[in-house]
Amino acid sequence: MALYRQIISLFFIIAFPATAVSQKIIVLDSTTTASLRGLSVVSDKVIWVSGSKGTVGKSLNGGKTWQYYTVPGFANGDFRDIEAFDAKNAVIMNIQKPACILKTTDGGTTWQQTFSFADSSVFLDAMEFWNEQSGILIGDPINSHFIIARTFDGGKNWQILPPSRSPIADSDEACFASSGTNVRKLTKSEAVFISGGLSSNFFYRNEKQKLPLNQGKASTGANSIAIKNKKIMVVVGGDFLNKNDTTGNACYTLDGGKTWVIPEKNPSGYRSCVEFIKKSQWITCGLNGVDESNDDGKTWEQISSYPFHVVRRAKKGNALFLAGSNGRIGKLESM
Q1: What are the distances in angstroms from CA 214 to CA 201, 250, 295, 297?
Q2: Are 270 and 245 in contact (CB under 8 A)?
Q3: Contact at 8 Å (CB) between 238 and 266?
Q4: Model pLDDT for residues 87-146, shown as the tens digit of each residue
C-alpha cells in the first residue's frame, strides 16, 4: 500500500508540476482619449480616474463601463491625482494654473474648488489620504522648501505648512507628478515622500536619505514609492526621456529607509508607479510596459508591454487596475 501511494504521488508530480500563478494585463474598453495619471480604486467595483483635458472618469461595475466628466472651467486642466472614498465622494488635484483642489459629493456631477494657490508658479505633485478625513498634499519647492499641506476634513479645507516645518530641497530637486504616488502613508499619522531631478532623495520626518537611482538631470530620479510595512518599501523611477533604460530605475529597503538596495534584476525600463499587492508581490508600470516582483523587489519580470502611467490596488477588495495615455485602462488578472 505504501508503494502504491508513492507511485500515485509521483504520477501527480510528473503530470501536474507545481507552477507559480502567472499574471496578465487585460486592456478594458474606454471612451476617452485623455492621458490618465490619477487612479483611485475604492473597491473591486468602484474605480475613479483623472487626467488631462479636465477629465474625470468613474466605473461602478469593475471597469466594464465608464462614465466621464469634463470639470466645468477646467477644460485645459490636468488632474494628475485623485482620491476617492466611495461612489459619490472624491477629491482631485489640478497641478498648475491654478494649482488647486476640487471635491465632489455627488459622484462627479458637480465640483467645488476647496483650495487654491495664488502663486501661479506653484506646481502640485501628489496627494495621499490616511482615511476619509486626513490627507496630505505635496508640491515642488518654492524658495528651496517643498510645499506641504494637510487636510483634516476630507479635502474641504487645507493648511499649508510654514517653511520652517517643510523639508529643504537641493538645487533643482523636485517631485514628479507622474502617478500621484511620490508621497505615501507610513503609519496612522506619518507619511514619507521621494524626489527626483538633479538630486533624488527619500524623506522621513526630518531625515533625508540619498537614493541609489539614476539622477543628475531634470528627467531623472524617483517617481513613485510603495510601502508593505514600516520596514519594507520599494521606489521606482529612472529617466522618463529614455523609457528603455534600466539603469538606476528601482531600489528597495528592508530597514525602513536607512539603507537602500539595488535589485538583482531591474524592471524593464523607466517606471512611473509601483504598488504593493500582497505577501512579497509588487507591480510597477511605465512607458514600455509592466513588471512584477515576487520577492519584495529583489528581481523583476516583465509581464506586459502595454504602457501605463499608474497602477493601484483596491482599498477594499483584491482588484488591481492601471491607467495611461489615450484613455488606456488595464486590469491585472491571474491566468
Answers
A1: 11, 9, 22, 17
A2: yes
A3: no
A4: 999 999 999 999 999 999 999 999 999 999 999 999 999 999 999 999 999 999 999 999
Closest alpha carbon to 25 in 327, 316, 303, 254? 303
Using CB atoms within 10 A of its CB, is residue 93 exposed (0-12), middle (13-18) or buried (19+)? Answer: buried
Which CATH superfamily, name and number, covers 20-334? Answer: YVTN repeat-like/Quinoprotein amine dehydrogenase (2.130.10.10)
pLDDT of residue 206: 84
Q: Which residues contact 87 (CB under 8 A, 6 or more apart)?
A: 42, 46, 58, 60, 107
Phi first, then psi: give them for residue 11, nearest 5 degrees.
-60, -45
- What's 313's DSSP letter? E
Residue 86 CA to residue 143 CA, distance in Å, equals 37
Laid out side by side, the sheet with 301-304 consists of: 273-278, 281-286, 289-293, 301-304
Backbone angles phi, psi at 54, to 5 degrees: 65, 30
Quote the cell numbers at residue 40.
483611485
**pTM more than 0.90:** yes
| Domain boundaries of the chain, sorted by first residue | 20-334
| Terminal alpha carbon distance of the chain | 37
Contacts of 8 (CB under 8 A, 6+ apart): none
Q: State the Cα–Cα distance between residues 203 and 210, nearest whole angstrom.
A: 9
Buried b / exposed e over 213-232, threshold 16 CB at 10 Å, is bbbeeebbbbbbbbbbeeeb
